[in-house]
Amino acid sequence: MVWLKLDLQYFAADEKTEKATPKKREDTRKKGQVPKSQDVNTGFLLLLIFGTLFLLGGYMEGTLKGMYKVAFNEYIHKDLSQEQTHAMFVEMTVEISKIIAPIMGVALVAGIASNLLQVGIMFTGEPLKMDLKKLDPIKGAKRIFSARALVELLKSLLKISMVGVITFAIIWVNKDQMMMMSQKSVEDALAFFGTITTIMGLASALALLILSVLDYTYQKYDHEKNIRMSKKDIKDEHKNIEGDPQIKAKIKEKQRQMSAARMMSEVPDADVVITNPTHYAIAIKYDEAKSDAPYVVAMGVDFIALKIKEVAKSNDVVTVENRPLARALYQHSEIDQPINEQFYKAVAEVLAYVYQLERKM
């Protein structure tokens, strides 16, 4: 029963039940793993392109007509030479660019805007790195028959159905006018069918944008599910950020040892060591060039206090026993800092006694 309980606790700790931490989110973002819907890109692209066609259709029509007029009225009468062919090619390229440039520019803006809207500014080369795991046929088969693949299939069928219904509805509404186009001029027929095509494109783009909201919601949910963490993962991450407690303890111990060694090196220059006499030891120095008040160069309790007294004795530093003062100085003083104003009088009396003793000696 004990082993069963431990196994259950182990599996519970490994279960992905916790939301991703900010660090986990940042790491996955650096790898290019962000919630993103391609339908948002497609919807924006179609909407802006058909909107551009709707607004600039007259300008494009005029440019095309001008090209045909020049081609059949001027170019057809020119001599077919290398220079003339080059000049005609350059002129036609410039005119075609006037038609294509707005569409290409809008497509570029749509692609950038849709990505910024979803993921913001992000530069990463991780998705471009070669990963042999992606060539694993077993994992590939799992992806093909996964729940995500089923969702993508249903989503594709829904998009095809929506676009099909929309285009059929628009054609059905305008079927009578379409039948009458045989009685109209070619220019009127082309204008009518161009308008109908643009309307179908705009309606389909709006439908895809509505669908993309649902798709983005699902992509975000699926992303959050995939980056969930177990309690063990959170603990491990915390250890990596803060450092292993054992290593941190060793570092602190080393720092204490270095501090103690540096502190002991200051004891020989002290003016006096005030003791408890067994538990506390505080080394005091008065240097007018460094501080207006006496300051603590070393202090400690028990073992460190014993070492301070041994160093003081070996270097002929005077030791004075004053139990209340030693305790108070230890509790209210910092190393390399002046003593508290409330101890001025008591420490001054001790220093006066030490100076008098040194003069006699």
From TrEMBL:
One Pfam match: Bac_export_2
Keyword line: Bacterial flagellum biogenesis, Bacterial flagellum protein export, Cell membrane, Cell projection, Cilium, Flagellum, Membrane, Protein transport, Transmembrane, Transmembrane helix, Transport
UniProt-listed InterPro entries: FlhB, T3SS_substrate_exporter, T3SS_substrate_exporter_C
Entry's transmembrane regions: 40-60, 99-124, 145-172, 192-218
GO cellular component, one term: plasma membrane
Annotated localization: Cell membrane
Gene Ontology biological process: bacterial-type flagellum assembly; protein secretion
Record has NADP as a keyword: no
Function description: Required for formation of the rod structure in the basal body of the flagellar apparatus. Together with FliI and FliH, may constitute the export apparatus of flagellin.
Stated family: Belongs to the type III secretion exporter family.
Name used for this protein in its record: Flagellar biosynthetic protein FlhB
Record gene name: flhB
